[in-house]
Amino acid sequence: MAKGLFGSSLMKKFWMALTGIFLITFLVVHCLINAMIFFDDGGMTFNKWAHFMGTNLIIRTMEIVLFLGLILHIVDGLMLYFQNRRARPVKYAYEKASASSTWYSRSMALLGTLILLFLILHLYHFWLKTRITGLTVEPSHIFFDGHRYEDLFSEMKFVFKHLWVVIVYVLGCISLFWHLLHGFRSAFQSLGFNYTKYKSTIAFMGDAFSVIIPSIFAAMPVALYTGWIQ
Fold it and tell me: What angle do CA 135, 62, 121 make, to 5 degrees?
């Protein structure tokens, strides 16, 4: 491929970092909106915010940007992975990497692939039904304060009443934890924020983010399956 966007390894790492941080900001927003189910008010707060996210023109436009950013992140990551594989012998690379890096930093491509498979299932369960096919639950709409909302909360309860789905989602969140544990720090390092005075702060923020966000995501299907949230 021509030099430029995907030319050198340095450029690939730069775009990986930039798209990674963009996706991290999306995770924060997505997590906050979905965490509204913990108000345990029959889904009223969650449905209101989900309605706003689904009808706001700016948000809908950002969905397209998000999708393009995700594709760029995946393609760039795979290109970087295969480029590194071709650049050095497998045995040497394994021995050298094992001495200076963690297993999850060497498994970013695998973890990313697992997250992608989980994301496809997630899009099938929710995005496809809210944008194309319509919700499974009947009635699919409810009314609050004279306004009509899609009942996404009931759809969540329907999806997460199946144990195998809950297990897959929890495993997806575990993969996300390991992916973020390396990716968060690596993104800031690739963008040049690797000065000594920033390292400890970035490391702490990365570790905290990697634990908190996947934990909240994983708690949602578990809470709905066990009946903690009604």
Answer: 40
Q: Write down the number of H helices and E strands in the chain.
A: 9, 2
Question: What pLDDT digit, counting tens, does each position of 26-62 carry?
Answer: 899 999 999 999 998 888 999 999 888 888 888 888 8
Of the candidates 39, 55, 21, which has an alpha carbon nearest to the alpha carbon of residue 150? 55
The number of residues in the chain equals: 230
Question: Is residue 2 a part of any domain in this protein?
Answer: no
Q: How far is CA 200 from CA 36, 197, 206, in A?
A: 32, 7, 10
The DSSP letter of residue 102 is: -
pTM more than 0.85: no
Indicate which CATH number applies to the domain containing 209.
1.20.1300.10
Q: How far is CA 156 from the centre of its chain?
A: 18
The domain containing residue 220 runs over which residues? 9-226
